[in-house]
Amino acid sequence: MEIKDHCIELLLSRGVNVNDIAELVFLLQKDYVQNIKIEECLESVDRVLSKREVQLAIMTGIELDILCEKKQLNDKLIEGIIDRDEGMYGVDEVLAYGICNLYGSIALTNFGYIDKLKFGIVEKLNDDPNHCNTFIDDIVGAIAASAASRFAHRKAGDILK
Amino acid sequence: MEIKDHCIELLLSRGVNVNDIAELVFLLQKDYVQNIKIEECLESVDRVLSKREVQLAIMTGIELDILCEKKQLNDKLIEGIIDRDEGMYGVDEVLAYGICNLYGSIALTNFGYIDKLKFGIVEKLNDDPNHCNTFIDDIVGAIAASAASRFAHRKAGDILK
Amino acid sequence: MEIKDHCIELLLSRGVNVNDIAELVFLLQKDYVQNIKIEECLESVDRVLSKREVQLAIMTGIELDILCEKKQLNDKLIEGIIDRDEGMYGVDEVLAYGICNLYGSIALTNFGYIDKLKFGIVEKLNDDPNHCNTFIDDIVGAIAASAASRFAHRKAGDILK
Amino acid sequence: MEIKDHCIELLLSRGVNVNDIAELVFLLQKDYVQNIKIEECLESVDRVLSKREVQLAIMTGIELDILCEKKQLNDKLIEGIIDRDEGMYGVDEVLAYGICNLYGSIALTNFGYIDKLKFGIVEKLNDDPNHCNTFIDDIVGAIAASAASRFAHRKAGDILK
Fold it and tell me: Which residues in chain D are closer than 8 Å to B101, comparing Cβ atoms?
């Protein structure tokens, strides 16, 4: 199996499907792009998921969430910090920036916005009391922010060139 | 004169005083810190302004704004792009991230939030038709976001240690 | 004229041609890729130069170099700091990271390596007593580091997929 | 126990003591600072280790190394990639940049240099066939690069102010 498909399955197994992410992209772009279509957002998400660095961040982050949830970390101090998603824990955001950085400054700004206001699937992940979603909510936000940035650049390309 | 004082004067000459920035910090932190005082926010802004890398970013960004405003750039293509603050121009945000990065992941998230919603002085700078504020609005947002992150880390230090 | 062509001319006017950059890519990759060809390196440089965020960083950085050289900055304090490329001045590196970040972590590591050891054209720019090359040497290093990272990812793609 | 002491013990349990890191700082700074003393380097390392974001990155990275070594990851695909430290795996560097970014652009450049040339303890970690050191070698490099940057800024402060 392709690593990309593996990542899409991993996301699904944690309650996230690509449409949820495409809806975040739609939300981020609808004020800037006339007649934006959800299919275009979906295509942009798919392209972000095709990048190797994105895939490796997804796999690493979700693995940490699962390990914490199963109480399988060796160091119980960091396990507790990740599990409670303590305010000062920023490694999840650092991983998310590793994704956003690949798509430039618009992606980073979009990520900060999503992360603060917690729209759609990000809110759902954040409010879920039964899972440790410390990493996945930031990763999903980063994928959406990146797909929105990619989309904006493509659209602008027509004008600025 | 100290470089810090030079930067505070530069900011003032472009319509920004440190209280405006402290108010952004207050706004960012009031939901997280009980009985937060504006004096504490002001002190945190002052500490951010004491860092050499922050000062050099302020001086470089404001200089570019002034040069554009005075039509003094040699390359008229980039002058126009900066002057109109075109959507795809991200060097201003890159400079802002250079500041935020010094204060960790909370600073970056805060910056994205301010940059999207444009509160207080950032909105005022952004709406000013008489000046080129392409760099300064992001720099001011970055200083506020950094001061808020610094503040949050100090407060949390008491608890997490 | 295309913005990309404008950037290539700007680089040329400051003594840098794309072959110089391709040679840096070759140097960075020759130990990792068997039978690497300079044409492949050149193609990778060309693709990096096609990105809008890269073009805008090139134009902004070179403009600052030229303005300093001509003593056209309004603020003589920052003019002196940039002109002498003072050790603590890091805005040039911040701009360079804005380029490298688009190509992932390998690009950043490569940049640090080039920046310290100053190979080829980077050394030439750095040693030139007649020009202010504070920004362009980092920008050229960043383009080379990014092109090398892009190249490495392409090659690895065949294996890891 | 203080989180800092916990991190120092964690590093020790993986074969790294603070003196090893101080020696890297010495190496990075000796050409720039006259009469540099190892005690000063050690003090700078200690200050870097006092930052909460640094501590959390150390704990997260070392935990991933240990989990991989013990074959305790749930996802065997990512376990293999981390264990072999595959060339395209960059999450370890992303974590390292999360540390370096706190200390500005000099830290990032220093990190790239150490990461390529693999001095001292970084080489030892890298060559160790009995442990998974994918994260710790980058973390150690990042701490040293950051301590060197902090040191350089302090020294320059006397001059530039």
Answer: 101-102, 104
Please report residues of B whose CB lies closer than 8 A to that of D103.
102
Q: How far is C106 from chain D (nearest CA, A)?
A: 7
Residue B42's pLDDT band (cuts 50, 70, 90): very high
For chain A (length 161 residues), average pLDDT per consecutive 10? 94 98 96 92 97 97 98 97 93 97 94 93 95 98 97 72 40
pLDDT at D160 over 50: no
> Does residue C160 have a pLDDT over 80?
no
Most D CBs within 10 A among C86, C113, C154, hence the mutation to make, goes to C113
The band of C141, judged by pLDDT with boundaries at 50, 70 and 90, is very high
- Provide the pLDDT confidence category of residue C108 given band limits of 50, 70 and 90: very high
* pLDDT at residue B87 is higher than 90: no
- The gap from C-alpha C107 to its chain's centroid, in whole angstroms, comes to 11
Q: Which residues of B touch D52 (CB under 8 A)?
A: 153, 156-157, 160
ipTM score: 0.94
On whether the CB atoms of residues A65 and A136 are closer than 8 A, the answer is: yes
Chain D interface with C: residues with Cβ < 8 Å: 32, 86-88, 90, 93-94, 97, 104-106, 108-113, 115-117, 152-153, 156, 160
Q: Give the Å distances, CA to CA, from A136 to A43, A57, A64, B87, B140.
A: 21, 10, 9, 29, 31
What was the pLDDT predicted at C28?
A: 95
Put simply, whether the predicted model's pTM sits higher than 0.90 gets the answer: yes
Residue-wise DSSP of chain D: --HHHHHHHHHHHTT--HHHHHHHHHHHHTTTSTT--HHHHHHHHHHHHTSHHHHHHHHHHHHHHHHHHTT--S-HHHHHHHHTT-TT--HHHHHHHHHHGGGHHHHHHHHHHHHHH--HHHHHHHH-TTS--HHHHHHHHHHHHHHHHHHHHHHHHHHH-
Burial C131-142 (b: 16+ CB within 10 A, else e): ebbbbbbbbbbb
> What does the block give as tokens for A130?
């039964």
C3 contact residues in A (CB cutoff 8 A): 160-161
Chains that touch C (3 or more CB pairs under 8 A): A, B, D
Angle of helix B52-69 versus helix C91-100 axis, rounded to 10: 80
Alpha carbon distance A148, D31 (integer Å) = 45
Cβ contacts of D97 on chain C, cutoff 8 Å: 105, 108
Min distance D6 CA to chain A CA atoms (Å): 9
Q: Across the interface, do D102 and B102 touch by the CB < 8 Å criterion?
A: yes
Q: D139 to chain B nearest CA, in Å?
A: 16
